[in-house]
Design goal:
Layout (H helix, E strand, L loop, with lengths): L38 H19 L3 H17 L4 H8 L2 E6 L2 E6 H27 L5 H25 L17 H11 L5 H25 L6 H20 L8 H14 L4 H10 L7 H20 L10 H12 L4 H25 L14 H29 L11 H10 L4 H11 L3 H29 L3 H18 L1
Antiparallel strand pairs: 1-2
């Protein structure tokens, strides 16, 4: 039967001779334990899991978990068991089949393997915003683009002013990045004080900031490009396009060509996480069935399911085909970019990013580290760049662009709100730590840069909360002010 959606699909007809729904099945089967389950054990498991589920639904929970992992990493790396911390991440992990064996450290598989999924989600967010979000129209994107560009240029300029040459020069990209999880978490802690337009501005700014960080990694923190690796990456890219042209919609079937693309990037000298971004940008942003098509196909498949289930000598295997059609309709009711982002976001926020923080935030602090050549200027460049350079760049360039009529401030956003967003934007953490790993080969400078990222991000977060409490009115006050403004405008008219 065709999967073509129908706009005026008929109501589900009654099936002649079909028995009425039994009394015991009038409620949802999900309210009862599955076959083989022991009800007391199931209730106990739900009681244990429910607080975790509630925690994961809180916007700030991902940032809180990242902070906890960073504290654990720092405490572990400076405890009597610090050797075990560093030894753990250098543990070799081997993957391979037959004669093909790939052996790297656990730290490599986290930073260059799992973080590909993180960058894939970033690519999905960019793709979604470009299709029907804040980046879909130049007028809507102008303000976050101006804010993000200012928030990248000024911190980098501050760093370069303090580190004009030598090995320390390479760290200019570290203070450019904003950590979206922490930043959104801070705004969530401020509650109803933050208008919706301000949250949208921060999200759009952070996504554009991620685009900038990705370009910086690809152009400046990748080694010399090898043509053989690029050819392999091009093959993986071509296979993805071919599968899309054929009409393949199952995400798992894109994993093999994605792995080819990743391996090609790695062999080419381009950081392999860029493969995740490319795959995210290639993900379709339009649904196949849509909402109306889902309803039409689901009704037809459900009618077929009921008819088959009431045939004489009906077999469970006969029900597989209509169930598969319902599954396809369910999968294709929303765009793949939205479905994959929704599916992967919790795994990235609560598994991959915390694991990254645990494996990268642990720095063994030595009192004599600042005496090393360039250590002090690296610390100042990163810390000041994040805590001070970000707010100056975001607010200054946004205000300048608005004054020149290149963009307009959204309704409900003023200079005070911009200052809060700019300050919160100074939380670098995940992306800043990631770039620091690529920028410094000297362990001492890398350690100093990591500590500066943590301190600068901590200062930015605290300042963001304080400024939010001081500058942003409570929701009731904001509503009253908006009503007064509207009244004044109507009087003027």
């Amino acid at each position: 039967m065709s999967h073509t959606p129908a706009d005026d699909s008929p109501e589900l007809p009654s099936i002649p001779g079909a028995p009425a729904l039994p009394e015991e099945l009038a409620s949802s089967p999900n309210s009862k334990p599955p076959p083989g389950a022991w009800l007391p054990a199931q209730k106990a498991a739900r009681a244990l899991v429910r607080p975790l589920e509630s925690f994961m639904k809180v916007q700030a929970s991902s940032g809180i978990l990242l902070l906890v992992m960073a504290v654990i990493a720092m405490a572990w790396a400076n405890s009597p068991w610090q050797e075990s911390y560093h030894h753990l991440w250098h543990t070799p992990v081997t993957l391979g089949v037959g004669d093909f064996v790939f052996k790297e450290s656990l730290h490599f598989w986290i930073n260059d393997g799992l973080m590909v999924i993180f960058f894939f989600v970033v690519g999905l967010e960019i793709r979604r915003e470009m299709h029907h979000g804040e980046l879909s129209e130049l007028k809507r994107a102008a303000l976050p683009v101006a804010a993000a560009v200012g928030g990248m240029i000024v911190p980098a300029a501050i760093y370069l002013a303090l580190n004009p040459g030598g090995e320390t020069h390479h760290g200019w990209g570290v203070p450019m990045a904003t950590d979206i999880a922490f930043a959104v978490g801070i705004l969530a802690l401020l509650g109803p004080r933050v208008p919706a337009a301000l949250r949208v501005l921060l999200l759009a700014l952070a996504i554009i900031d991620d685009i900038g960080a990705i370009l910086v990694i690809a152009l400046f923190y990748s080694s010399g490009v090898k043509l053989a690796g690029l050819a392999l990456a091009a093959l993986g890219f071509a296979l993805v396009i071919l599968l899309q042209r054929i009409g393949v919609r199952q995400p798992l079937l894109y994993v093999p060509p994605g792995a080819v693309l990743w391996a090609g990037m790695l062999n080419a000298g381009v950081h392999p996480t860029i493969a995740g971004v490319i795959l995210g940008l290639l993900t379709p942003a339009q649904s196949w069935f849509g909402q109306r098509g889902f309803l039409a196909e689901a009704k037809l498949a459900l009618r077929d399911f009921i008819e088959r289930s009431h045939r004489e000598k009906a077999d469970s295997h006969d029900l597989i085909e209509p169930l598969n059609r319902i599954g396809t309709a369910q999968r294709e009711a929303i765009p793949p970019v939205v479905r994959l982002e929704s599916m992967l976001n919790p795994r990235v926020a609560f598994v991959i990013m915390p694991l990254f923080a645990l494996s990268n935030a642990g720095v063994t602090i030595r009192l004599d580290a600042l005496d090393s050549p360039g250590a002090l200027t690296v610390a100042l460049g990163v810390g000041v760049g994040l805590a001070l350079g970000k707010p100056i760049g975001i607010v200054g360039v946004s205000a300048l662009a608005a004054k020149l009529n290149l963009c307009t401030l959204p309704r409900g956003v003023d200079l005070r709100g911009l200052l809060v967003v700019g300050t919160v934007g100074g939380i670098g953490f995940t992306m800043a730590l990631f770039i620091a790993q690529l920028a410094f080969t000297d362990p001492t400078l890398l350690g100093i840069a990591k500590v500066a990222v943590l301190i600068g991000s901590f200062i930015a977060g605290i300042l963001g909360i304080v400024l939010g409490l001081v500058l942003l009115p409570k929701q009731a006050d904001a509503s009253s002010a908006q009503t007064v403004d509207e009244a004044e405008r109507s009087t003027d008219v």
